[in-house]
Design goal:
Elements: H1 4-19, H2 25-156, H3 160-173, H4 180-193, H5 197-210, H6 216-235
Length: 236
């Protein structure tokens, strides 16, 4: 629009030249009025053009700032997205590690439970066997004691043959019993009571030779001496 201003000025100048040809004042005034109006219009148009140009410049500057801000925001957003992707990748790696650790711990716990269950079963079996053995040992001890007491009772009431047989059976059935030396002693005593002194001496000698440290060894020696004395009396 600024290019149209020179053309408009030339037109006004031409009009002014032609107006000089008229002599009457009316025509001159009209021309002057038209010139003034056109000049005012030109100034208005020029002012509007300048205003529009200023607005365009302002708009261009604002658009430039907006584009710059948008680019900065886009860059920030891209950096933020990249950072989030890196964080996500790191978290995925940590999750994978934790999952592997959890699976490893779960397998170890399972193996531990299986091993513990097997040990518990073995322990329960061992305890059951020990309990059974203890019960059997108690039953054996009771049977052992009863067998010994039964044989000794037969001796005390004078049933010497029965006592001898009972003590001999006891020594066979309970060969590891601590009462075996006493049983052997009572066998010798029973034979002594039956006046079978040679057999009595042989029985007591077995006590002395086999269990010399036993409490019955001195009694066995005394019984031997008594049997020998009885045999000497018989010879006399």
């Amino acid at each position: 629009m600024r290019r149209g201003l020179p053309v408009l000025a030339l037109a006004l100048a031409a009009g002014a030249a032609q107006a000089g040809l008229f002599d009457d004042d009316v025509a001159r005034r009209q021309i002057a009025d038209v010139r003034a109006q056109m000049t005012a219009q030109v100034e208005q148009v020029a002012a509007k053009i300048e205003q529009i140009a200023a607005e365009q410049q302002s708009l261009a500057e604002r658009m430039s700032r907006a584009e710059s801000a948008a680019r900065e925001r886009a860059l920030d957003l891209a950096q933020m997205i990249d950072g989030l992707k890196q964080d996500l990748a790191r978290l995925r790696g940590q999750i994978e590690v934790l999952v592997n650790q959890s699976q490893t711990i779960e397998r170890r716990q399972k193996d531990l439970y299986v091993d513990l269950d097997a040990r518990m079963r073995k322990l329960e079996q061992a305890q059951s066997q020990m309990t059974e053995k203890a019960a059997q040992a108690e039953r054996d001890a009771q049977s052992e004691k009863q067998a010994y007491e039964s044989a000794l009772s037969a001796f005390k009431v004078g049933n010497y043959q029965i006592a001898i047989a009972a003590f001999q059976t006891f020594m066979v059935n309970y060969a590891n019993s601590p009462l075996v030396p006493s049983a052997q002693y009572w066998v010798g005593n029973a034979y002594y009571a039956l006046r079978d002194y040679k057999v009595a001496i042989a029985a007591q000698e077995k006590v002395i030779k086999t269990w010399p440290e036993n409490a019955k060894a001195p009694d066995a020696m005394l019984n031997i001496a008594s049997a020998q004395a009885e045999m000497g009396d018989q010879k006399a």
